[in-house]
Amino acid sequence: MIAAEGLVSAGALLPVSVLRSDPVQVLATFVALNTLMYATLAAVKILPRVQRPAWLNGRNRRAQDRSIYAGRPADDTDR
C-alpha cells in the first residue's frame, strides 16, 4: 500500500512537475471537452427523433402541382 501511495504522489509515469505544466493542462482540458462532446453526441443519437408539427413548417406545400392528374383539383381524382 505504501508503494501505491508513492506512485500516486510522484505521478505514475511522469514526474509531478511535468503533469502540472501548462501544455499538459491544455491537453487535459482538450481531452475533457472532447469527451463531453462525444458523450453528448452519443446520448443524442440514442434518443428518439423529435418531429415538428406540419403547421410549424411553412414549406410543407409544393409550389407546383406534381400530381399525375395535373391541372385537376385535388377532389376530382378517380376513386
What does this structure look like?
The chain has 79 residues and is mainly α. The chain has a domain at 22-47. The protein is built from three helices and no strands. The protein is rod-shaped.
Short structural description:
This protein has three helices and no strands.
List the helices and strands and how they pair.
Blueprint: H1 2-10, H2 16-19, H3 22-46
Keywords: Membrane, Transmembrane, Transmembrane helix
Transmembrane segments: 24-44
* Average pLDDT taken over every residue: 78
Gross morphology is rod-shaped
Strand content: under 5%
Q: Low-confidence parts lasting 5 or more residues at pLDDT below 50?
A: none
Number of strands: 0
**SSE topology string:** HHH
Number of helix segments? 3
Biggest pleated-sheet summary: none
Radius of gyration: 30 Å
Q: Structural class per helix/strand content?
A: mainly alpha
Secondary structure: helix percent:
40-55%
Keywords: Membrane, Transmembrane, Transmembrane helix
Transmembrane segments: 24-44
